[in-house]
Amino acid sequence: MTTWLDDIFAVEKPVIAMLHLSALPGDPGYDAEGGLDAVIARARQELHDLQAGGVDGVMFSNEFSLPYLTQTEPITAITMARIIGELRSEITVPFGVNVLWDGRASIDLAMATGARWVREIFTGVYASDFGLWNTNVGEVARHRARVGAAGVKLLFNIVPESATYLADRDLESIAKTTVFATLPDALCVSGATAGAPTDSQALAIVKKAAGAVPVFVNTGVRAENIGDQLSIADGAVVGTFFKRDGRFENAVDPDRVVTLMTAAREFRATLS
């Protein structure tokens, strides 16, 4: 059965690479001396390294805007739009965006830049490291329609990092009702933090409950486990493994990109 993943990526079980933008204006870690020129220069180099390594897609995120806001300041998405605009002619693979942790801002950024998808926390109420974390998926869905972004696919992270679902519900129930009641285009299953392994049993539970909705393994994918993870999931989102020494804070290591994508292609070859 053909899915929107086939239409966008034209490969089975795509690997989406995270492009983690440096801290942006307004963020505590922003390098005002280097300014946006330094942010753009690093993003450009990482974009080229990821694409040259063979990734199937790229997702821009403000990953170094720590600590995150659940309702971002306008300067964040505006700055991200400028960065993506400057790099737009150099992007050769499908791309998405993620304004952490703000669904509306992510949709607005996607609409402004031509991104094909967004990843966010769209459903649930959580106790998190960022305080009480509430969502309003109905409002966000209507906002997407109002701004003409109906074609932007919504990837729902239903196991958010640094947070615990407040309701006493099991993961299977959450996945089933999310699919039925909130109309996600895909579900993402994560570990505790960026780079943390995603539990294979949790991934399998969500995959079974999701029916025809694609499921992505969202954190902790490595060259040595990508075959096992993609044997369950419909695709993978990879960030930390691609970094030098596999450390979240480092820049992309081109050799690590090639290593993982080689393993991904070898696994996909077993499917045909």
Provide tags for this entry.
three-stranded antiparallel β-sheet; alpha/beta; 272 residues; 11 strands; 9 helices; single chain; TIM Barrel
Describe this structure in words.
- With 272 residues, the protein is of the alpha/beta class.
- The protein has a single domain (11-269), classed as FMN-linked oxidoreductases (TIM Barrel), CATH 3.20.20.390.
- It is 38% helix and 16% strand.
- The chain has nine helices and eleven strands.
- The strands form two sheets. Strands 1-2-3-4-7-9-10-11 form an eight-stranded parallel barrel. A three-stranded antiparallel sheet has the order 6-5-8, with no helix packed on it.
- InterPro entries: BtpA, RibuloseP-bd_barrel.
- This is Photosystem I assembly BtpA.
- Pfam families: BtpA (PF03437).
- Belongs to the BtpA family.
- The proportion of residues in beta strands is 15-25%
**What sequence of helices (H) and strands (E) makes up the elements?**
HEHEHEHEEEHEEHEHEHEH
Tally of separate domains: 1
Spatial gap, N to C terminus: 15 Å
Give the topology, please.
Blueprint: H1 4-9, E1 15-20, H2 35-52, E2 57-61, H3 74-87, E3 95-98, H4 103-113, E4 117-120, E5 126-128, E6 131-133, H5 137-146, E7 153-157, E8 163-165, H6 171-182, E9 186-189, H7 200-210, E10 215-217, H8 226-230, E11 235-238, H9 254-269
Parallel strand pairs: 1-2, 1-11, 2-3, 3-4, 4-7, 7-9, 9-10, 10-11
Antiparallel strand pairs: 5-6, 5-8
Helix pairs in contact: 3-4, 6-7
Pfam families: BtpA
Family: Belongs to the BtpA family.
Protein name: Photosystem I assembly BtpA
